[in-house]
Specification:
Blueprint lengths: L3 E5 L3 H19 L7 E5 L2 H9 L3 H17 L4 E4 L8 H6 L8 H11 L4 E5 L2 H5 L4 H5 L4 E3 L3 H14 L7 H16 L4 E4 L2 H6 L9 E3 H14 L1
Parallel strand pairs: 1-2, 1-3, 4-5, 4-6, 6-7
Length: about 230
């Protein structure tokens, strides 16, 4: 079994899901007392978020690169960034170490293509929806990528940062996100990517008819394939 390196803390709720699901996945695949071999470095979410808001991406990259180097020194064979938004600096992080980064965008795109989709929608943080670093990565795989209308961005972002990163699950917020997903489907999306771990805590496939692509779940499965393959 290979050792999975995790860069976490963005948010810790997201990191906890990664750690839990990696271990559950190994247990399910191997049985018995088996668990995942992991190394995690967790950063201060407040610090990197403040730097993000200042657009100081070099500083963000250095913080995550140092975390990646520590994980590499601890024996990780490959890396996962337990976040969507901070994939903005994934290339810089990968360049700082000698082990590969399993890029979330590539994993999600491959899953969408396996389902023969041409058009998918992305919901996540305002930053992930309004910038091109992640949508362009998806589009490089031949996908048309749709995002919600700009007036929906702040609403979704507030649900993520004011509720979900603190572990708060609100039924009214679920209905709000489901309505956005349904509108995206009506506007031509053949599937919808949950591009934020915390959104997977709120919305499930049973809540909507359109196929959902939960990024963290797909990322974990791909990591398990690599670790156990």
């Amino acid at each position: 079994m290979k050792t999975i390196g995790l860069i976490g803390g963005m948010s810790w709720e997201s990191s906890a899901v990664y750690y839990r699901d990696l271990n559950r996945g190994v247990e399910q695949r191997l049985g018995g007392l088996s668990s995942a071999k992991t190394v995690m470095a967790s950063v201060d979410f407040a610090e990197v978020t403040a730097l993000q808001e200042q657009e100081d991406w070099d500083a963000v990259a250095e913080i995550l690169a140092e975390a990646a180097r520590s994980v590499e020194r601890a024996g990780a064979d490959f890396l996962l960034l337990c976040t969507t938004t901070f994939h903005r600096v994934a290339e810089q992080v990968e360049a700082a170490v000698g082990i590969p980064v399993l890029h979330l965008g590539d994993v999600i795109a491959e899953a969408c293509k396996e389902h023969r989709l041409d058009s998918v929608a992305l919901i996540g943080t305002t930053f992930a929806m309004s910038r091109v670093f992640f949508t362009d990565r998806l589009a490089s795989h031949g996908l048309e990528v749709i995002v919600p209308a700009p007036e929906k961005h702040d609403e979704i972002n507030a649900i993520i940062y004011d509720e979900l990163v603190h572990g708060k699950i609100n039924d009214d917020s679920r209905r709000t996100v489901v309505k956005v997903i349904e509108e995206l489907w009506e506007n031509g999306a053949e599937g919808v990517i949950l591009g934020c771990t915390e959104l997977e805590l709120l919305v499930k496939q049973t809540d909507v008819e359109v196929p959902l692509f939960p990024g963290t779940t797909l990322h974990v499965d791909a990591a398990l394939d690599r670790a156990l393959g």
